[in-house]
Specification:
By secondary structure, the chain is mainly beta. The chain contains 1 helix and 5 strands. A 5-stranded antiparallel sheet has the order 4-3-2-1-5. The radius of gyration is 12 Å and the shape is globular.
């Protein structure tokens, strides 16, 4: 089984299908009992734009990429 890395407030992610948008983890979402863990995310450039994403989706390298703290979305063009 793949080891899951924890997601902390301030962690930054880009969706591979939309590399121009950076999402920042705010906190663990409060969902109904028994639901898998989800994370509240805020758009880095438009803070009023928020989404909730399953933690497993954020950790799926086919869907999202975690950015290093010094890295910005421009480096995705490598």
């Amino acid at each position: 089984m793949m080891q899951e890395l924890s997601i902390m407030p301030g962690d930054r992610f880009v969706k591979l299908s939309d590399p121009g948008t950076v999402w920042v983890a705010e906190k663990k979402a409060k969902l109904a009992y028994g639901m898998p863990p989800h994370i509240n995310l805020v758009n880095e450039e438009i803070p009023s734009r928020k989404i909730i994403m399953a933690q497993s989706a954020l950790q799926d390298k086919k869907l999202f990429r975690r950015l290093d703290s010094h890295e910005d979305n421009l480096s995705l063009d490598q």
